[in-house]
Amino acid sequence: MALLDFKCNECGEKFEELVFGGNVDKVRCPRCGSNDLKRIYEGKCYFGISGSSSGSGGCSGSSCRSCSGCSN
Fold first, then answer.
1. Would you list the DSSP string of the chain?
2. Which residue among 5, 34, 37, 53 is buried most deeply as judged by most CB within 10 Å?
3. Alpha-carbon torsion, ordered 19, 13, 39, 56, to 10 deg
4. What domains, with CATH codes, occur in the chain?
């Protein structure tokens, strides 16, 4: 499960979508319903459960050093 960012090539809408099992091809634009989408990378990561005391959160940019699912 991943929270991904998309931009619709039809209407220009930018949105986030929770995608299960890599089913990116099933994502539709919430504004116009198109599946002509471009995945955009915002440089952020989200995680639900971690070994840290905070339990959950998000991070971005070069300050991201402790995310379990982030490549920064």
1. -EEEEEEETTT--EEEEEESTT-GGG---TTT----EEEE--SEEEES--SSSS--EEEEGGG--S-TT---
2. 37
3. -50
4. 1-41 (2.20.28), 44-72 (no CATH)
What is the pTM assigned to this prediction? Answer: 0.58
**Cα–Cα distance measured from residue 4 to residue 23, given in angstroms and rounded to the nearest whole number:** 11
pLDDT of residue 21: 86
Q: In angstroms, rounded to a whole number, what is the distance separating the alpha carbons of residues 28 and 18?
A: 12
- Distance (Å, whole) CA 11 – CA 18: 20
What phi and psi, each to the nearest 5 degrees, are found at residue 16?
A: -110, 145
- The whole-number mean pLDDT for each consecutive block of 10 residues of the chain, a chain of 72 residues, reads 94 95 92 96 61 46 50 49
pLDDT computed for residue 1 by the predictor = 86
